[in-house]
C-alpha cells in the first residue's frame, strides 16, 4: 500500500463568478521510503497539491489516502489530529518559534499532541538534533542559528512524531547552493534511514537529483510523462 495515494484530485476556488482551477485531476502515489520531487514554476499548483496531501486543505473532488487513512471526508478536527499523528511539514519560511530554543521548538510538537514534555520527549529531541548535527546547538534560539541550521531544526521538528509522510515546501530556496545541497543530502539520508515517504516541492532542477522520481506540474496538471531518474 502506498503511503500517499491521491486519485483524481481537483481543487477549485470560487472568485466572484469565476471558478479558478488550482489542481486538475491530479493522481499521485508515493511509496515507503520514496522521495518525490514536485517540480514546477510559481503558481503551477505545487503548494496546493502539498497542502491537500498533508490535510491542510480539503480537495474539491477526488480521494486522498495517507498511511491507509482516507482523509477525503475528514472534518477540521479530524484533519488536525491526522496531521499531528501522520505528517511532518517543513516550510520555506521554516516557521520556528523565535523565543524558543532549538530543543524547545521540537518539544512544542509533544505539547501540541498532549504530551507533558517529560524525559522521554527531551531525550527524543536531543537525539534528533544530535543526528542532524546540532547536538551543541540545542540551547540556541533561532536567531543565533544560520539559515542551514534553522532548516535542520525544522527537519527535526517534522520528524519528531515519526510521521509516515514528510512534506517539504521549497526547503532550500532561502539557502545558497552549497548549503542547499547539504540540506538536501541530509533530507535524503534521514528519509531513507527511516523508510519515510517524502514529497519535496521545488522550482530548482538542481534539487531533483536527490529525489528518486521527479513529477512536473504545470497549470495544476501533473505531467503524465514525469521524469524518472536514479538518485545520485
CATH topology: Rossmann fold
Beta-strand residue fraction: 25-35%
Low-confidence stretches: 227-232
Radius of gyration: 17 Å
Count, helices:
6
- The coarse overall form would be globular
Give the strand order of the largest sheet, numbering strands 1, 2, ... along the chain: 6-7-8-3-9-10
Main β sheet profile? 6 strands, mixed
Distance between the termini: 26 Å
Q: What average pLDDT do the residues reach?
A: 89
Supply the CATH class.
Alpha Beta
Number of structural units classed as domains: 1
Order of helices and strands: EEEHEEHEHHHEHEEE
* Share of helix, binned: 25-40%
Secondary structural class: alpha/beta
Work out the number of β strands.
10
CATH superfamily: P-loop containing nucleotide triphosphate hydrolases
Quickly give the CATH architecture: 3-Layer(aba) Sandwich
Structural overview:
This protein is of the alpha/beta class and 232 residues long. It has a single domain (4-222), classed as 3-Layer(aba) Sandwich (Rossmann fold), CATH 3.40.50. The protein contains 6 helices and 10 strands, in the order βββαββαβαααβαβββ. A hairpin with a 2-residue loop joins strand 4 and strand 5 (69-70). Helix 5 runs parallel beside helix 6 (177-194). The two termini are 26 Å apart. Residues 227-232 have low confidence and may be disordered.
Amino acid at each position: 500500500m502506498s503511503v500517499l495515494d491521491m486519485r483524481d484530485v481537483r481543487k477549485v476556488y470560487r472568485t466572484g463568478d469565476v471558478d479558478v482551477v488550482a489542481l486538475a485531476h491530479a493522481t499521485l502515489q508515493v511509496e515507503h521510503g520514496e522521495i518525490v520531487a514536485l517540480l514546477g514554476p510559481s503558481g503551477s499548483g505545487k503548494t496546493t497539491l502539498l497542502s491537500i496531501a498533508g490535510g491542510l486543505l480539503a480537495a474539491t473532488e477526488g480521494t486522498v489516502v495517507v498511511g491507509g487513512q482516507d482523509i477525503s471526508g475528514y472534518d477540521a478536527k479530524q484533519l488536525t489530529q491526522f496531521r499531528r499523528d501522520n505528517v511532518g511539514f517543513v516550510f520555506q519560511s521554516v516557521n520556528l518559534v523565535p523565543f524558543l530554543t532549538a530543543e524547545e521548538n521540537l518539544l512544542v510538537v509533544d505539547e501540541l499532541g498532549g504530551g507533558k514534555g517529560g524525559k522521554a520527549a527531551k531525550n527524543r529531541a536531543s537525539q534528533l538534533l544530535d543526528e542532524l548535527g546540532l547536538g551543541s546547538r540545542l540551547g540556541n534560539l533561532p536567531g543565533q542559528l544560520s539559515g542551514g541550521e534553522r532548516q535542520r531544526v525544522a527537519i527535526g521538528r517534522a520528524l519528531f512524531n515519526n510521521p509516515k509522510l514528510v512534506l517539504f515546501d521549497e526547503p532550500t530556496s532561502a539557502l545558497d547552493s552549497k548549503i542547499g545541497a547539504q540540506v538536501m543530502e541530509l533530507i535524503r539520508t534521514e528519509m531513507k534511514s527511516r523508510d519515510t515517504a517524502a514529497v519535496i516541492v521545488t522550482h530548482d532542477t538542481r534539487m531533483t537529483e536527490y529525489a528518486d522520481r521527479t513529477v512536473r506540474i504545470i497549470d495544476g496538471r501533473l505531467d503524465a510523462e514525469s521524469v524518472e531518474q536514479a538518485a545520485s
